[in-house]
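User: Can you help me understand a structure? I only have the sequence.
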Amino acid sequence: MLSTTVAEYVVKTGDHQTFYLAAGPADGPLIIFVHGWPELAISWRHQLPCFASLGFRAIAPDLRGYGRSTIYDRHEDYALENVVADMTGLLDALGTEKAVWVGHDWGSPVVWSIASHHPERCHGVANLCVPYYTLERGLDACVGLIDRDIYPESEYPLGQWEYQGFYEENFAAAIAPFDANPTNAVKALFRGGDPGGKVKPSRTAYVRRDGGWFRGAAEPPDVPRDAEVISETDLSVYAAALSRNGFFGPSSYYMNHAANAAYADRAVNGGLLEMPTLFIAAEYDFTCECITSRLAEPMRGHCTDLTSKVVQSGHWMAQEKPVEVNAALAHWLATSLSDVWPK
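Assistant: Let's start by predicting it. Here is the structure, written out as tokens:
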């Protein structure tokens, strides 16, 4: 019986410290799960024991700016090139040449960037919600793919990405309500998918118009926790980390579009991914809307071995629908990366 106990570790790579969670046999093939905004390694709490039980060495780091990893005080420190260096440094520290990489939200541009700049460090890559050849290339790469039937340009010039424009225009106002009450912020953000939101503007489209998140309120509303997505324990862990570190680091990921676009232009092989890739879209994620919009189109032209799946969930897919996500990942690993499957 393989142990599925999740343990905590810290590694130093140069001046950078990465905290990570790990489970599974030390000599198992490596699968690394990369979280997004405003999350933590625990966002993968349903995946780590599952893949450990299959014989993988399953790892989830806290990205820079989060949890117990190093916090930086300049926006430019959170450019993708720096985050990718942290992840390849982690792989070096683990003494392994290659891993299967899995990302979600901002973790997806990180993983897509590892694949496009360091394909030799990847057995394969899988991402949830954010397709390839979009956000890792900067905000402009996403704007031309907006569904203008839902987001008329005169009303929503940046479509569902209006909130990202607000970070650039007024960063202090964008993060102020989150810092004012991280507990309420987590409860308000981490919610299950709502089929009723189809073909309606995402709430992220109103952030600029409202002068901030939560309709411009000074702090998030106190809404009931969605027990289908996070437990009371999960809430307390997220809130404690975000209270300790603040939202400057996590939200600075939105402040590097130009630098990220320039970095993407230096991808090897013209940005064409030839390793096995998996993309899992969330049917009720109306910010990263990939079902009816053109958001996932560029990916199809830049991945030669692409598997696509759809899960009926909201944005926090790995936490809301872990069984479906784990099944999609395991099936892809068993069929597209059978040579990596634990012996």
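Now, to help you interpret it: The two ends are 14 Å apart (CA to CA). The first strand starts at residue 7 and ends at 13. Let me know which part you'd like to focus on.
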